[in-house]
Inverse folding.
């Protein structure tokens, strides 16, 4: 396991967001309340949970917030300290967390995926027709696993969406337009939403490095 003081994923996030990450085998510690919240999970899940919570508490420390147990909500979402927003992600060999003060960043989401194509038959389940057509255009200029990138961008969007709406967001209820020249993507929420969301603009960035696809979405007031 290796740990970076300046997280790679920080390059995708606003300057007022703090992040921590780990590469390699999962490891970490849990506070008493976090262990109780996890319950009797299988060993792999215990390691993922501990690594994610350790990254989250490290990110809070970098932000300047006091250490706080990161518990789970009804849908397994992390519950952050009052006045803080954040997101946790992990995939094989990588784990990260990002946090910010809510009065500076209304909401954010991060996601990590292995840099490989989606399994056969998955793209039609997660992509709108215009998105699938857009991937063909991207692929003609840059050699990337655009289908996996699209999936990751939607995962980051959902992680930013859910905390301020407490609602599910289906794959076809969000449109992602990837800009390969800028390593960024635009996000359009297509379902009716609460007033809080209608006042926000979601924007995303991505990074493909070290066998990983990393995406991040941060909201700004429109």
């Amino acid at each position: 396991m290796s740990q970076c003081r300046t997280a790679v994923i920080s390059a995708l996030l606003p300057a007022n967001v703090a992040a921590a990450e780990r590469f390699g085998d999962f490891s970490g510690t849990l506070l008493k309340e976090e262990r109780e919240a996890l319950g009797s999970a299988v060993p792999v899940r215990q390691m993922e949970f501990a690594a994610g919570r350790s990254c989250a508490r490290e990110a809070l420390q970098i932000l300047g917030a006091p250490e706080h147990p990161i518990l789970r909500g009804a849908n397994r979402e992390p519950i952050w300290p009052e006045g803080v927003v954040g997101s946790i992600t992990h995939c094989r060999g990588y784990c990260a967390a990002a946090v910010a003060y809510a009065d500076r960043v209304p909401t954010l989401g991060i996601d990590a995926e292995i840099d490989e194509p989606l399994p056969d038959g998955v793209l039609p389940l997660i992509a709108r027709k215009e998105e699938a057509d857009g991937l063909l255009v991207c692929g003609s200029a840059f050699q990337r696993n655009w289908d996996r990138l699209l999936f990751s961008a939607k995962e980051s969007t959902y992680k930013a969406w859910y905390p301020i709406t407490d609602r599910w967001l289906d794959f076809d209820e969000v449109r992602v337009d990837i800009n390969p020249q800028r390593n960024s993507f635009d996000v359009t929420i297509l379902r009716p939403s609460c007033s809080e969301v209608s006042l926000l603009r979601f924007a995303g960035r991505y990074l493909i490095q070290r066998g990983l696809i990393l995406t991040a979405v941060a909201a700004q007031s429109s």
